[in-house]
Design goal:
Blueprint: E1 4-7, H1 11-23, E2 27-33, H2 40-44, E3 47-52, H3 63-73, E4 77-79, H4 89-97, E5 101-102, H5 107-114, H6 116-125, H7 141-151, E6 155-159, E7 169-171, H8 177-192, E8 197-201, E9 207-215, E10 221-233, E11 236-242, H9 249-266, E12 270-279, E13 282-289, H10 296-303, H11 307-315, E14 332-339, E15 351-352, E16 355-357, E17 364-368, E18 375-376, E19 383-391, H12 394-407, E20 409-411, H13 417-423, H14 427-431, H15 438-444
Parallel strand pairs: 1-2, 1-4, 2-3, 4-5
Antiparallel strand pairs: 6-7, 6-8, 9-10, 9-12, 10-11, 11-14, 12-13, 14-19, 15-18, 16-20, 17-19
Helix pairs in contact: 4-5
The structure holds ligand MV4.
Length: 446
């Protein structure tokens, strides 16, 4: 096992990794920008190193600085968290080339899943259902139109190097095709430096269901059930829950087993998420994320498994001790992402936290790096904390969430808590029948 790990991240996930390390007896090194000198992760880590100025490109994305910090502190492994360098294959490669362990999958697997065309081909060839679509990249207007007419409208043009919804174009009439295709390619080029696009049949109102998977260096692979992340706004998740209120136990086992089989066949190592669209009782592979995700606590709460500790153990070469027989799903969990934003306009609201009180009690978890007197810097993501609750049933869980939201106090900055309070009063949410468009449509008529 590693003696010392460097955490190449900030905020609540840096703290989350420090906590896992402390419990398993690993020393931690926090790296931080000058804007984060007062961060809780810096205080809680055993050591800290300043790696650059506020701008992420000069600090949390500064590979030479991070590798130097690892070398001077004698860290053996680097945990990238989520965002920043977590899905940067070049970083993963450089970490390994400099003699450290990257706590994550092999660089080749990050590369493969980062290319959405290759990811889809891989998923299909290894047995996962995919959305009917073009056979890989679409190189011309004629080829694209031919597919659209054969598959039937509407279709969706996607960027091969995209993800997170950027560079997508829905086409409902064939006359719109040419312009949409040219725009999609030039936007893909501008955003990702790659104008490769592919086309899929457009699903009108799916759910976003993602499956947590894990592989190790010994050929073992498991799934840990799904999370329903359909409650989103502009591709930012707002509420996540598990299990999904619309998926049967039989369907969970079926799609989960298929997902684990893909991981095993790929020889994938570490934590991963298989993102699926779910519509009319069918699953369709969408993308695979090769990192730990913001919403991993939902899975931790219903399985009792520390996913960060598992990542570290797997990276150190230990075999997974989790298997079909000893993984038990218990109850229901919901997470809300608390952003320092205006709950009406979603404009970021950085600044000093003057009052802070977190909820507590049975089945309650508050993952955050903020504290009373802390100043939220304006340079990074506005997510400042996650409230996660567990209950025996979805209903108990929702009641607990409502109670916890009213108990939480964050003063000095605006937060999205009033939005969350409202969501848990909406009958569509309570029914569980919401899809990826529900929140945005509902907000438009609020
Ligand atoms: C889709 C889709 C409908 N049909 N693909 C958005 C992010 C990117 N990763 C894939 N996305 C979608 N792909 C087909 N064939 C709808 C979306 C989509 C979406 C998916 C998940 C969560 C939120 C979303 C919001 C808008 C569109």
């Amino acid at each position: 096992m590693f003696k010392k790990i460097l955490i190449a991240n900030r905020g609540e996930i840096a703290l989350r990794i420090i906590r896992a390390c402390r419990e398993i007896g690993i020393q931690t090194v926090a790296v931080h920008s000058t804007a984060d000198a007062n961060a809780m992760a810096v205080r809680l880590a055993d050591e800290s190193v300043c790696i650059g100025p506020p701008s992420a490109k000069d600090s949390y994305l500064n590979i030479p600085s991070i590798l130097t910090a690892a070398a001077v502190t004698g860290a053996e492994a680097i945990h990238p968290g989520y965002g920043f360098l977590s899905e940067n294959a070049m970083f993963a490669r450089m970490v390994e080339e400099h003699g450290f362990t990257f706590i994550g999958p092999k660089a080749d697997h990050i590369d493969k899943m980062g290319d959405k065309v290759m990811a889809k081909k891989t998923a299909l060839s290894l047995g996962l259902p995919v959305v009917p679509g073009s056979d890989g990249a679409v190189e011309s207007v004629e080829e694209g139109k031919a597919f659209a007419l054969k598959a039937g409208l509407p279709v969706l043009i996607k960027a091969a190097s995209g993800g997170g919804g950027k560079g997508m174009k829905v086409i409902r009439k064939i006359e719109e095709f040419e312009e949409a295709y040219r725009t999609a390619r030039s936007e893909a080029k501008a955003n990702f430096g790659d104008d490769t696009v592919y086309i899929e049949k457009y699903l009108e109102a799916p759910k976003h269901i993602e499956i947590q998977v894990f592989g190790d260096h010994h050929g073992n692979a498991i799934h840990l059930g799904e999370r329903d992340c359909s409650t989103q706004r502009r591709h930012q998740k707002v509420v996540e829950e598990g299990p999904s209120p619309v998926i049967s136990h039989a369907d969970r086992e079926k799609i989960g087993t298929l997902a684990a089989d893909v991981i095993r066949k790929m020889g994938y190592v570490g934590a991963g998420t298989i993102e699926m669209l779910y519509e009319n009782g069918e699953f369709y592979f969408m993308e695979m994320n090769t990192r730990i995700q913001v919403e991993h606590p939902v899975t931790e709460m219903i399985t009792g498994i520390d996913l960060i500790a598992e990542q570290i153990k797997v990276a150190a070469g230990e075999p997974l001790t989790l298997n079909k027989e000893n993984i038990r799903f218990r109850g229901h969990a919901i997470e809300i992402r608390i952003n320092a934003e205006d709950p009406q306009t979603f404009i970021p609201s950085p600044g000093k936290i003057t009052q802070f009180h977190t909820p507590g009690g049975l089945g309650v978890r508050f993952d955050s790096a903020i504290y009373q007197g802390y100043s939220i810097p304006p340079y990074y993501d506005s997510m400042v904390g996650k409230l996660i609750v567990h209950g025996r049933t979805r209903e108990e869980c929702i009641n607990r969430m409502r109670r916890c939201i009213t108990e939480t106090v964050v003063e000095g900055v605006k937060t999205t808590l009033p939005l969350h309070h409202w969501i848990f009063q909406q009958e569509e949410f309570l029914s569980g029948e919401y899809n990826i468009h529900w929140l945005e449509k509902k907000l438009a008529t609020r």
